[in-house]
Amino acid sequence: MHAKENLIAWGGDRAEKLRACGTLLQDPSARGSTRTLEGKVDSIGSVDAVAGDGPAPPSMSSFRHAGESSRAASVLVLAPRRAPAPRASLRVLLLACRPKQWVKNLLVVAAPCAAGMIDRPAVAAQAAGAFVVLCLVSAATYLVNDVRDSEQDRLHPKKRMRPIAAGALAPRSALVLAVALAASGIGLATAIRPALGLVACCYLALTASYSLLLRRIPVLDILAIAAGFVLRAVAGGVATDIYLSRWFVIVTACGAVFLVAAKRYAELLEHRGERVARPTLRRYSTTGLRLTLLGAASGAGAAYIGWALTRPASVAWFALSVAPFLLWLGRYAALIRAGAGQAPEELILGDRALLVLSAAWGLLFIGGVYVGS
């Protein structure tokens, strides 16, 4: 079989494409130059590979064999070309860092706002720096978690759209980015205040222990996530050098436990009667989580009332702020009972009643801090 016949046997449509590229295929023995044919087929093969239609052309050894022996039939073994992995775009990298979750880091302004010092430029700059630090280190932990959970996330109706689970971001690239973000966060925190660098390291250690161990232990998994919220609030106080009262810490801790337990409760309701994907969730009960919600809400409400009624000034403003605070907790609990709450940030920003109560509480609180004084 001649080289031309060999090529047509490999695929007549491919031969037409090669002719369209301006190459005349002839028997190498008639031309007396196998090297010339090799160069032409190589150049055309690269054009056809760019077109992306089918596998790569036959190897040159097959054409040499056809030219040397017209009586032997050539068997062509085609090796598919492996397309290079696409580089992740800036948008994909940003989505992998979960920017919607960064709203939790606004807790850094809680301490300076409660102290009435957020309007000072230096304090505001320090609080903004603490916010950036927490965005960097929390994004690093999200990337590591998504790499660990990529196989499980692919089976989830929503989480499968995350860049790592969807294959838009390679796990190796995600881990490299996570290390860079963590190092940048610790460096910036230390530059703002050495104690803030220590808080950032504690946050990374907490989230790492959660990913490796605590997430598999009931109750401790809730407490670990709640501790992350407390560290956010502590970071704001440390960055601005503001003393945190025991009332402030209790309200923050109980409120964090309330939100995390509500998330677990919503997840349990969603998977009721089904096989639960999260192993720890199987060991929870709706009754136990309801009691946790009740205890956390009661603790947060009692601590806030104790703080509001013991202010040295502006007691009326802070006392009035108790009502929207308690109503907010009640409204959130009602939404949880209805099956919402797996994504707390989406629930808070998407419910009009919660937004109105949040605005009312904020106005009364600011009035107590600035107007009443």
**Domains (count):** 3
Question: What's the CATH class of the largest domain, please?
Answer: Mainly Alpha
CATH superfamily of the largest domain: UbiA prenyltransferase
CATH architecture of the largest domain: Orthogonal Bundle
- Characterize the largest beta sheet: strand count, sense, and whether it forms a barrel: none
Q: Tell the overall outline.
A: globular
Approximate strand percentage: under 5%
**What's the Cα radius of gyration?**
32 Å
Return residue spans where pLDDT drops below 50 for at least 5 consecutive residues. Answer: 1-83
Total beta strand runs: 0
Q: Which structural class should the secondary elements be placed in?
A: mainly alpha
N-to-C order of helices and strands: HHHHHHHHHHHHHHHHHHH
Describe the structure.
The chain has 373 residues and is mainly α. Helices cover 68% and strands 0% of the residues. The chain has helices at 3-10, 12-20, 28-31, 34-51, 60-68, 90-96, 110-114, 121-148, 150-153, 163-166, 171-192, 194-212, 220-240, 246-270, 286-308, 315-320, 322-337, 344-350, 352-371. Helix 8 (121-148) packs parallel to helix 12, helix 8 (121-148) runs antiparallel to helix 13 and helix 14 runs antiparallel to helix 15. It is globular, with a radius of gyration of 32 Å. The relative contact order is 0.07.
Topology:
Blueprint: H1 3-10, H2 12-20, H3 28-31, H4 34-51, H5 60-68, H6 90-96, H7 110-114, H8 121-148, H9 150-153, H10 163-166, H11 171-192, H12 194-212, H13 220-240, H14 246-270, H15 286-308, H16 315-320, H17 322-337, H18 344-350, H19 352-371
Helix pairs in contact: 1-2, 4-5, 8-11, 8-12, 8-13, 11-12, 12-13, 13-14, 14-15, 15-17, 17-19
